[in-house]
């Protein structure tokens, strides 16, 4: 599908002559573009025009993928800033934008399949994709607590003193948890953007994991507020 990325070569436009690019038989061409009652010249001319339009439409589909890749990278960069600023509502809005970008690419899938069929071309081989890694609360650093101390406490005063002693470590751990989830969310979006969201299953899974990571980040934020104020 030829989506160019910042780390790869720029996508090449089709340069083949339409007539040599078509591998369909005369009967198949006639079926696609209509019968011409034995007028071979008119049929071939129409086939060339059809191929030319098909190549133009395929280029337009590739443009959608390229634009999606660029938009995805911009969203990832913006999410990195918003997560650092803990701008929760803006993060949710950016994830909505991400889903819209994914949908625009998905809408070109049927068009690409049809056009390749008209041109008698096989669908391009799918590129190897990275795994969409899932992140759960159990994967985050454990929060320190006086309740986990082996030695018990005789009274609440002793427990409160221990909690105060643990406060710096607790703040640090909360920061690590939030940072780990934020980095994961951005990485998921960057991976999807790198291939222009061109693989439907991979794009859907990436968007789903980005939203799940956002919910986990929100829980970590709420937990920090509850424990540290």
Description:
- The chain has 7 helices and no strands.
- It has helices spanning 18-21, 26-33, 40-85, 88-106, 109-118, 156-194, 200-228.
- It is rod-shaped and about 95 Å long.
- Helix 3 packs antiparallel against helix 5, helix 3 packs antiparallel against helix 6 (156-194) and helix 6 (156-194) runs antiparallel to helix 7.
- The longest helix is centred in the N-terminal third of the chain and has 46 residues, at 40-85.
- With 229 residues, it is mainly α.
- The two termini are 50 Å apart.
- Helices cover 68% and strands 0% of the residues.
In short:
With 229 residues, this protein is mainly α. It has seven helices and no strands. The longest helix has 46 residues, at 40-85.
Index terms:
229 residues, 68% helix, 0% strand, rod-shaped
Describe how the helices and strands are arranged.
Layout: H1 18-21, H2 26-33, H3 40-85, H4 88-106, H5 109-118, H6 156-194, H7 200-228
Number of strands: 0
Task: Give the overall pLDDT as a whole number.
Answer: 77
Major β-sheet profile: none
Estimate what percentage of residues fall within beta strands: under 5%
